[in-house]
Amino acid sequence: MNTNAVTIKIPTDIYNQISHLAEQEQRTVEEFLAESITDTFHKGDANEAEENARMAREESAYEAMHDDLVKTHLYHYVAIKDGVVVGADADELKLFFQLEEKYPNEVVLMRQVLPTLPPDLRIRSPRFEK
Asked: Among 48, 54, 73, 129, which has the minimal tally of Cβ within 10 Å of its Cβ?
């Protein structure tokens, strides 16, 4: 793996905390920070993939229950988490703030229930010819 050297300025109290943690693990501050930053980015990739998969499941659940939602929540916004409606409101922002409070940092699908599902968009890749 290629590496690059950078210089950053951090508050003294933060540096002291990092230094203490590095010392406990018998590593240098540089090693500790490099591993921490690398781990953060690798975990971010895994978290993003998991969140995308969860959102896809919530979208599938929404599509499966769409006919019932049209009967009960037409033109309202619904929130779906783990395949279950966990909130609904005519006011999009009100529902959004309720979800932020109740499910912070969790994957929740929020959609307005319309009479029909939106069509699938199929976008063809451009083809270049000489």
From this structure: 129
